[in-house]
Design a protein that fits this description.
The chain is of the alpha/beta class and 324 residues long. 43% of the residues lie in helices and 11% in strands. The protein has twelve helices and eight strands. The radius of gyration is 19 Å and the shape is globular. The structure holds nicotinamide-adenine-dinucleotide (NAD).
């Protein structure tokens, strides 16, 4: 769908937004605006104030960017600032290199909003809405209408092909995937997905933005689940099936991967960290996009999600967390 804004941009497309510029003055109120930020000039938009949206907003704000996070859910917006503060505290305990800005400046750099119209000045938008194809397609149509014609859109989707979302904008050359891992502030690399129509300049802008926040982009081609989740989702689904069939309990399954294979975390603890609701949504996306029955979520996973046992964020998944 071609909105007037972006149709104009694509027609006269000479490139992507400023790369390696200083953080400009347009956009959000209450943001700090630190000069000399590498990667993208101006305000950066984040869509979705959940696990990934808040984590990515933190990465950006701690590197000196001004960020507007949009989420229609009052409940998400009510808890997001505290989650951001906790995330900044945690990152400062674990990160090897110091953050570019003080904690209060990072907190002030993030503005929270309900309407996508607040992203009217955003030069780069990271979409972190739930993993549902129709929902994300709608978000991309809205962004295309409200954002500047030369703004870049990056989806943080776990599995949806970039082209499927780019096709809902009039600027497919300016759309790509940036699959951050969770927790975003503590992970050093990002799987970057180049869609069939993604322009070189768009890729360069995204890689420069990542470099500016201290991360490396690993570029792959567009396919359902890319590299990471095409493999990981099958592993988690199969690990849940092993529990369902009574071959081993969750602690034993994870121990095999940790103690025998030397993995830092087993597949079921990884599922709990990602969120079992997101795992099931992602498996359904993979099933729809590939038609491959191996991606059918197993009964155990579906049951746990129906019971609200979705992992760390609910305090209870394959393992228990906190006081629950
Ligand atoms: N959780 C992970 O480990 C992980 C890792 C990499 C990628 N992802 C992907 O990142 C995306 C977000 O996942 P998450 O784990 O943060 O989910 P989440 O459920 O924690 O957060 C999603 C947020 O989006 C909000 N939302 C709903 N409709 C919206 C709309 N129309 N516009 C804007 N926001 C809307 C919700 O209120 C919620 O706050 C998904 O595509 C997911 O597959 C997740």
């Amino acid at each position: 769908m071609n909105e007037p804004n972006s149709a104009r941009a694509e027609a006269g497309a000479s490139g992507a937004p400023d790369v390696a510029g200083a953080s400009g003055a347009s956009g959000a109120s209450g943001a700090s605006g630190v000069a000399g930020v590498a990667g993208v000039a101006g305000v950066i938009g984040v869509v979705g104030a959940g696990t990934m949206g808040t984590g990515i907003a933190q990465c950006l704000a701690e590197a000196g960017h001004r960020v507007i996070v949009v989420d229609p859910e009052e409940a998400a917006l009510a808890t997001a600032p505290a989650r951001l503060r906790d995330g900044i505290r945690l990152a400062r305990m674990f990160r090897k290199r110091p953050a570019a800005v003080p904690m209060d400046a990072a907190l002030d750099a993030v503005t929270w909003a309900r309407r996508p119209q607040e992203l009217a000045d955003a030069r780069f938008v990271l979409e972190c809405a739930p993993e549902r194809i129709p929902l994300k397609e709608k978000v991309f149509r809205e962004l295309d209408e409200v954002c500047p014609p030369d703004a870049v859109f990056a989806t943080v989707t776990s599995a949806i092909p970039v082209e499927r979302l780019a096709a809902h904008t009039g600027r497919p050359r300016r759309v790509l995937g940036m699959h951050f891992m969770n927790p975003a502030p503590l992970k050093e690399a990002v799987e970057v997905i180049r869609g069939p129509r993604t322009a070189d300049e768009t890729l360069d802008t995204a890689l420069a933005l990542l470099a500016g926040i201290g991360k490396t982009g690993i570029v792959v081609s567009d396919a359902p689940g890319f590299v990471s989740n095409r493999i990981l989702m099958l592993t988690i689904n199969e690990a849940a099936t092993v529990v369902q069939q009574g071959t081993a309990d969750p602690a034993t399954v994870d121990r095999i991967f940790q103690d025998c294979f030397g993995h830092t975390m087993g597949p079921l603890a990884t599922g709990d960290l990602i969120g079992l609701d997101t795992i099931v949504d992602t498996l359904y996306v993979l099933l729809e996009c590939t038609g491959d029955e191996r991606f059918q979520p197993c009964g155990k996973l579906r049951e746990m999600v129906a019971e609200g046992h979705v992992g760390r964020k609910s305090g209870h998944g394959f393992h228990r967390y906190g006081t629950s």
